[in-house]
Every structure is written in structure tokens, then in C-alpha cells.
Amino acid sequence: MSSSLVHVIAEKFSVVTEFHPEPLFSIAGSRLSTEAGIKELVNAYSPLMLALEPAAAGVYFISRIAMLNGAMQYMVSHAELIDLAPERWTLQIYRHEKGHVEFRYVLSEIRWMEGPQPDQRSLWREERLSHWYEAHIRPIVEATSRAVKVDLTHLWRLFPMRLRYMFDQLEEAAGSEELLKRYEEDWTFLTKGLKGDPFGRSRNPLDVKINFVDYPGAPGEPDKQLRMKMACCMYYRTEGGNYCYTCPRMKPEERAGRKEQLRVKLAEEAAAKIAVN
Q1: What is the pLDDT of residue 1?
Q2: Considering the domain boundaries, does residue 207 fall inside one?
Q3: What digits encode the pLDDT tens for the residues 139-167?
Q4: Residue 200: its pLDDT value, please?
Q5: Stretch 17-26: mean pLDDT, rounded?
Q6: Whole domain around residue 220: which residue ranges?
Q7: Contact assessment for residue 104 and residue 95, using Cβ atoms and an 8 Å cutoff
Q8: Is there a single domain that holds both residue 15 and residue 55?
């Protein structure tokens, strides 16, 4: 069993073994599969994230637990598994030293689980991921849907782009072609191989068509392509918030106007740097 795995899931996915000394809120992971537990979390989290309604806090929460899905996926790809069942961790919300609010998942112990048998990795991967989403993530998503009155489809669709971003980061840090290939194979299985049953859906909600939008480049540089979100994160329902640039709620003409505003801003920033130099 690798001690480096413990370090990686702490650094990359906020799954740790030490409690924060000054938490703003703590709740047992097992309570997050209940409507009462989600309401308790939302009541505590809403003022911290300046939510204008409970639904915004619920959506933000589901977006954040994508970190646990990322940790699970990383462990499956590396064929080493620590038990991340909600019964084994406490969720803490705390104030980061930079001022923003963060989550951490504090394990009560490091409990190693059995890895794949020789030549049985594909079967083991399917069993582990199916069980993860059906037994642990689905109850949390469904309890959140009931507690904050947000459609289940909306909540499930928060995961794909968050997970794809995590995969991109893992692939950038992959130290070999073999590992890079494994990450992509596991992404394909997660999104195309898993059926809808573990999610309680007719089809796998992680299997989505990724669309892109243009984002202005700095003066002299080409525009960038950004992935559009599959569901609104509800930032616009927080104090001072608005639609994100990649929000699916934003109308094309509104995004075009935002794009031109950004282009002007980038040009002004570039001119200011030239003036200083």
C-alpha cells in the first residue's frame, strides 16, 4: 500500500486525516444522504457563500463533492483503494488563509480496500465505480434534490465538466504514456461504459456531448476554446453574482457582448503594462 496515495488525495482532492483546528461547520458524511442533514449543511453554508436561496447552496455543495469522485477515479486508475464511504469521513467547512471558504473530507482512519486481481482490472473497475456511485454518491445527490428542490438531472450534470477538468490535470502530470493511456481509458469507461443503473437514471448522466465557446485571447493572441458547463452552477443566485461566461443559461447574444467587453479589458490591461515598462 502506497503512502504517496494518501498524500495525493489530500493535496489534490482535499481528502485528509487531520481536522481543521477552526472549522466553520462540521457534519458526519453519513448524514449527507438524509434530507435533514442536507438542510443543516445548506443552512450553515448559505451565508458563507452569500447564497440568495437554498438551491444555490445545494448546487454549490454538489459541485464540490465532485472532488470525492475525482479521488475515487484517481485511485481506480492507480489500482489502489482507500475506503471513502461517507460513514468514514466528516465534512468540514473552513476559512482558507486567503479568505475564501473551502471544504475538506476528514477520514476517521485509513482503511485500505482490496485491489484488482491479476488480469481482472476491468471487472474490478466496473464493480468499484458502480458501487461508488450507487451506494455513496447517488444517495447524497437525491437527498440534496429533495432538500433544496433542484431537479436531479441538473445536479448530476454538474459532475462531467468538473471531472473532465480533474482528468486534464492528471493527464498533464502523468509521468508515462502508459499512465496517460490508462487515464483516458478510465475516462471513457466512466462516461461510456457505466450504465444508468448505478445513478438511478435511464442512462449514464456523465455521458454528455461537450460543447465549446470562444473566449477572447490577449492582444496578438488567438481566441481560446472553453468547455461550456453542462448545468448552471447558480453563481448568479449569490450576492453580486451573474452568469458565468460558460453558463448554458447565457444567451448567445449576451455571451457575444461579454466577449467584446473582455476583449476591451484585455487590451486596456496590455496597454497599461506597456505604459509602465
Answers
A1: 53
A2: no
A3: 999 999 999 999 999 999 999 999 999 99
A4: 97
A5: 97
A6: 212-276
A7: no
A8: yes
Confidence of residue 277 (pLDDT cuts 50, 70, 90): low
* Claim to verify: residue 172 and residue 225 sit in the same structural domain: no
In a domain, 204, yes or no: no
Question: Distance between CA atoms of 277 and 231, rounded to whole angstroms?
Answer: 43
Exposed e or buried b per residue across 62-81, where buried means at least 16 C-beta atoms within 10 angstroms of its C-beta = bbbbbbbbbbbbbbbbbebb
In this structure, which amino acid lies at residue 242? Answer: N
Would you say 46 and 58 are in contact if contact means Cβ atoms under 8 Å apart? Answer: no
| Same domain for 1 and 43 | yes
- What are the start-end ranges of the E strands in the chain? 15-16, 25-28, 81-82, 89-95, 101-107, 112-113, 212-215, 224-227
Bridge partners of residue 103, in order along the sequence: 93
In this predicted structure, what is the pLDDT of residue 237?
97
DSSP 263: H
The answer to whether residues 78 and 166 belong to one domain is yes
Are residues 145 and 216 both part of a single domain?
A: no
- Inside any domain, residue 140: yes
Phi-psi region of 14 (alpha: psi -120 to 50; beta: other; left: phi over 0): left
223-235 tens-digit pLDDT:
999 999 999 999 9
